[in-house]
Amino acid sequence: MALEAGAAIPLSIDLTSVDDGVLVSLDTAVDLVGECVRCLDLVRAHREVHTTDVFVEPSSPLARGPEDEDSDALDGLRIIGLHDTVDVEPVLRDAIIPLVDDRPLCRPTCAGLCAVCGEKLDDLPPDHHHDVIDPRLAGLAALLESDDVEEDLSNDDAQEAEHQ
Ligand SMILES: [Zn+2]
Ligand SMILES: [Zn+2]
């Protein structure tokens, strides 16, 4: 699922001054769209988004990170940008990604599509089926057919023999 391209996202943002930075609280709601993994119907999901993140001053010891360069303590740390700006786009993206269902269903009981005709099983009668020859037996069926042909030929031969 994904956000519809070009969809407007109205944001409500609170900024609170804290030690070494600013606390950014962000509220919004998004409409995610995708395809049912079973029947490919459009699936639409409305999701509320609430996040709170601290953006630290670039001069803060936090922003400089620990001495140990292997540490991942800086991962996810948000830093106030040039001219005291905060970039909420990564905040919003990080908040939406966990809300995305990677196996969306149009409804929990969706039966999916008929493997033969591709129609939605939910729209078809319960006894819907196709007479299909198992591919492993298709060769056998072909043999049976050719046997019939040979039989017909031998019958013809026999008849011809009678005529002679
Ligand atoms: Zn479905
Ligand atoms: Zn079918």
Core attributes:
164 residues, alpha+beta, 2 domains, five-stranded mixed sheet, 5 strands, 25% strand, elongated, binds zinc ion
Question: What does this protein structure show overall?
Answer:
The chain contains 3 helices and 5 strands, in the order E-E-E-E-H-E-H-H. It has helices spanning 61-64, 89-96, 135-163, and strands at residues 2-3, 12-18, 21-35, 42-56, 78-79. Helices cover 25% and strands 25% of the residues. The mean pLDDT is 83. With 164 residues, it is α+β, with helices and mostly antiparallel strands. Strand 2 (12-18) and strand 3 (21-35) form a beta hairpin. Strands 1, 2, 3, 4 and 5 form a 5-stranded mixed sheet that branches. It has 2 domains: 2-123, no CATH class; 133-164. One zinc ion (ZN) binds at residues 36, 38-39, 41, 105-106, 110.
Summarize the structure.
The protein has 164 residues and is α+β, with helices and mostly antiparallel strands. The protein has helices at residues 61-64, 89-96, 135-163, and strands spanning 2-3, 12-18, 21-35, 42-56, 78-79. It contains 3 helices and 5 strands, in the order ββββαβαα.
Ordered list of secondary-structure elements with their pairings:
Elements: E1 2-3, E2 12-18, E3 21-35, E4 42-56, H1 61-64, E5 78-79, H2 89-96, H3 135-163
Parallel strand pairs: 4-5
Antiparallel strand pairs: 1-3, 2-3, 3-4
Bound molecules: zinc ion (ZN) (2 copies).
Beta-strand content bin: 25-35%
Which small-molecule ligands are present, each listed once? zinc ion
Instruction: Count all strands and give the number.
Output: 5
Mean pLDDT: 83
- Specify the biggest β-sheet: 5 strands, mixed
Domains, number: 2
